[in-house]
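FORM 12-B: Structure-to-Sequence Request
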């Protein structure tokens, strides 16, 4: 039996999709985005804080942990957004990304993982920088807008 492969890269299409949790951190009507540094996929694109859901972890626990690890900010989960189905063809990766809404009332985001993120910025929703990580593009394609953003 022949393995099906992505046409552009030859990477096998078999495997299990991963679950990503992306946190839309809101403060004073703006959202937090970081510019990725990644050897695997999405290098130099802008993303929300987040990462992989770990075994036994709730989605809220993952969101709080990832934001703290990446930015040093404490957040409160205030709701849940939609999900996106993200296939990174060139990298041979498939993620289902769950979006979490969180608030942060104080503190400046720090680059805590410089090998993964170059910088953090607070942005208006309608002025998110480009290029954007695939999951954010998919979120915008469905017309999603978090409550309380400018």
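FORM 12-B RESPONSE
SEQUENCE OUT:
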């Amino acid at each position: 039996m022949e393995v099906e492969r992505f046409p552009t890269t030859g990477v096998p299409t078999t495997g299990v999709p991963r679950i990503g949790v992306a946190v839309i951190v809101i403060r004073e009507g703006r959202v937090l985005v970081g510019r990725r540094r990644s050897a695997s996929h999405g290098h130099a694109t802008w993303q929300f804080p987040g990462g992989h859901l770990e075994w036994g972890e709730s989605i809220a626990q993952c969101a709080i942990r990832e934001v703290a690890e990446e930015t040093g900010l404490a957040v409160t989960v205030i709701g849940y957004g939609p999900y996106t189905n993200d296939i990174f063809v060139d990298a041979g990766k498939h993620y289902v990304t769950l979006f979490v809404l969180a608030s942060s009332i104080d503190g400046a985001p720090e680059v805590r993982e410089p090998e993964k993120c170059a910088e953090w910025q607070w942005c208006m929703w309608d002025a998110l920088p480009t290029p954007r990580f695939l999951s954010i593009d998919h979120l915008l394609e469905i017309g999603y807008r978090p409550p309380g953003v400018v």
